[in-house]
From TrEMBL, chain A:
This is ABC-type quaternary amine transporter. One of its GO terms (molecular function) is ATP binding. SUPFAM superfamilies: MOP-like, P-loop containing nucleoside triphosphate hydrolases. It comes from Streptomyces brasiliensis. The keyword Nucleotide-binding applies.
Automatic annotation (TrEMBL), chain B:
It comes from Streptomyces brasiliensis. Pfam families: BPD_transp_1. This is Phosphonate ABC transporter permease. Residues 65-255 form the ABC transmembrane type-1 domain. GO terms for cellular component: plasma membrane. InterPro entries: MetI-like (IPR000515), MetI-like_sf (IPR035906). The lineage of its organism: Bacteria, Bacillati, Actinomycetota, Actinomycetes, Kitasatosporales. Keywords: Cell inner membrane, Cell membrane, Membrane, Transmembrane, Transmembrane helix, Transport.
Length: 348, 265
């Protein structure tokens, strides 16, 4: 079953926290809502769950308009950042909660609880209380609890934020596996972490300032971002103000070759280039500047180079002889790796 | 106040003992000593006797103890039910309504209990609700007096309750009533039992409103203690007071055991 936002607006008093969101999540699709805090992504999820009421617009689950339905009649599964496991119930009772509330027959409850716990690898912990579990285990129980009711739609609100980095990547793989096992479940995944979104999502909806900024597959958003916010939030692109010329652009007096199709010569634009696509040394498109900062990151060095008054970030393979701060270096990138965005639209 | 040095800790303990002993513990110990005394004419009591206890645990006194226990249990359960209900309703209501309700429930604390007693007396002395002369007027007065405390402590607990629990429950398909009985009330149980204990203790010791209302066949213990001291039987009164204290403490201990079992975090 899919999810459809039809021009959903949510406001608290005079503050609009979600501005006319139009978005469709296809049946069986994983849609990540990606954005910084305050971007409206959690509000959108809570509008689907029924915990916030849109000021205008409708929310659909499948063909059903659920805008006026209370949360308990929507048939969703939800996992939140702090898990919210019921502390007075054992793991098995937590997982059985939704089934008991829906008056499922007792024999079937037992079977479905066992199934959900198996699926999340928590069968051995059925008799424990939540306080006796680690964060990662609590997370699995929360997921099992949501899956036990066999929802058509699974809402995940920053489900991995409370876990440490190592657990997070493990759980990310688990979530991907769960989705392969449950191909019909649509997942709305709210996160501020681009890695989670890029790894897990079929499509990503990038949110900022209560608005949908861009929506597309991870590859589309990464390779050809539609605007500056998307470019910088997904993959931390370098954004350089340029003037469009013929067969290239001009950045601070430096001529750079690239595809300028669709741009008007003489107009201002923003050049977008990923840090890992910039190399150190001579090449086709040269940027010469002084090193402002250099960080060793194991396999790579991150160089922050000041070029014509702008900081260009480059991730290069680990250097045996890294330049010193203040040294003059030359960077280059291939013409095909850069893309051109309209200048400064909607974001600073 | 947190003190970490060794001498500092000793000093704090010393100050605590100097202040606490005379103010809180000694008067209670004096009552305990007096309850066993035949005479008390010098510094220490003399003529050790258990006769007062023999009197304090049978006949009129035993009757009064039962009366007090029944009154306190009934009043605190009623107060807990009404107070919790009101607190839950107020929490769900819009803010102005909540404020009015909260104020309404603080009134019995703000108003002197004598006034509450008089109010109950006047209100229930005529048909259609003629309770004067029955035990119910005492129970009603106690309920009115202690509901305020029940409401306040439950209300505070509800505000502290993380809404994530009830939202998780609702998202799993549980109706509001199911969420109330299976999630919210169990999570509130520690606070509910604390409130019940408080109400019980307050009701066990209530005198001023009770004095105006109690019928001859429903004499709670505090009234008996007052009557005993009034006629000069201080030692007999002390024994009854110790019985009252002990009974209250036993119940409070039992309630606190429930609370320990019911707290999860």
């Amino acid at each position: 079953m899919g999810i459809r936002f039809d021009s959903v607006t949510v406001a608290y008093g005079n503050t609009v926290v979600l501005d006319a969101l139009d978005l469709t999540v296809e049946p069986g699709e994983v849609m990540a809502l990606l954005g910084p805090s305050g971007s409206g992504k959690t509000t959108a999820l809570r509008a689907v769950a029924g915990f916030v009421r849109p000021a205008s617009g409708r929310v659909f689950l499948g063909d059903r308009d659920v805008t006026d339905l209370p949360p308990y009649r929507r048939g969703i599964g939800m996992v939140v950042q702090q898990y919210a496991l019921f502390p007075h119930m054992r793991v098995e009772d937590n997982v059985a909660f939704g089934l008991k509330a829906r008056k499922v027959a007792r024999g079937e409850i037992r079977q479905r609880v066992a199934e959900a716990l198996d699926m999340t690898g928590m069968a051995a912990y059925a008799r424990r209380h939540p306080r006796e579990l680690s964060g990662g285990q609590q997370q699995r129980v929360a997921i099992a609890r949501a899956l036990a009711v066999r929802p058509d739609v699974l809402l995940l609100d920053e489900p991995l934020s409370a876990l440490d980095a190592r657990l997070r990547s493990g759980m990310l793989a688990e979530l991907a596996r769960l989705h392969r096992e449950l191909p019909d479940v649509s997942i709305l995944y709210v996160t501020h972490d681009q890695v989670e979104a890029l790894t897990l999502a079929d499509r990503i909806a990038v949110m900022d300032r209560a608005r949908l900024q861009a929506c597309g597959t991870p590859q589309e958003l990464y390779r050809a971002p539609a605007n500056e916010f998307t470019a910088s939030f997904v993959g931390n692109a370098n954004l350089l103000p340029v003037t469009v010329g013929s067969g290239g652009v001009v950045f601070g007096g430096i001529e750079l070759k690239m595809d300028t199709a669709g741009a008007v010569a003489g107009a201002g634009a923003t050049l977008c280039i990923r840090p890992h696509l910039i190399g150190l040394g001579d090449g086709p498109n040269r940027l010469t500047g002084t090193v402002g900062d250099i960080q060793w990151r194991g396999a790579t060095h991150r160089l922050s180079v000041e070029v014509a008054g702008h900081v260009v970030t480059a991730d290069v393979r680990e250097l045996t002889d890294p330049p010193a701060n203040g040294a003059e270096v030359t960077l280059h990138f291939a013409p095909g790796d850069a893309s051109l965005l309209p200048a400064g639209v909607g974001h600073d | 106040m947190l003190v970490h040095s060794r001498t500092g800790k000793w000093a704090v303990w010393l100050v605590f003992l100097v202040l606490f002993l005379p103010l809180f513990a000694l008067p209670l110990l004096v009552i305990l000593a007096a309850s066993f005394a035949g005479h008390w004419s010098s510094v220490l009591p003399s003529g050790f006797t258990t006769a007062h206890y023999t009197a304090a645990t049978r006949g009129e006194a035993l009757q009064a103890l039962t009366t007090s226990l029944v009154t306190a249990v009934t009043a605190s359960l009623l107060a807990l039910a009404v107070g919790t209900w009101a607190a839950l309703a107020a929490h769900a209501a819009p803010k102005p309504v909540r404020r009015v309700l909260d104020t309404l429930f603080v009134l019995p604390v703000a108003v002197p209990s004598v006034v509450v007693g008089l109010a109950v007396l006047v209100a229930f002395s005529q048909p259609p609700l003629l309770l004067n002369g029955t035990r119910w007027i005492v129970i009603v007065a106690h309920t009115v007096l202690v509901t305020a405390f029940a409401h306040q402590s439950v209300s505070a607990a509800i505000t502290r309750l993380d809404p994530a629990y009830e939202q998780a429950a609702a998202s799993l398909g549980a109706r509001p009533s199911y969420v109330l009985w299976r999630v919210r009330l169990p999570l509130l149980l520690p606070s509910l039992s604390a409130a019940a204990g408080l109400c019980f203790a307050l009701s066990m010791g209530e005198l001023s409103a009770t004095m105006m209302l109690y019928p001859p066949d429903w004499t709670p213990l505090p009234v008996l203690i007052y009557a005993a001291t009034d006629r000069g039987a201080l030692f007999a009164g002390s024994a009854v007071a110790v019985v009252l204290m002990t009974a209250t403490l036993i119940v409070l201990l039992a309630v606190s055991r429930v609370r320990t079992k019911a707290s999860y975090r």
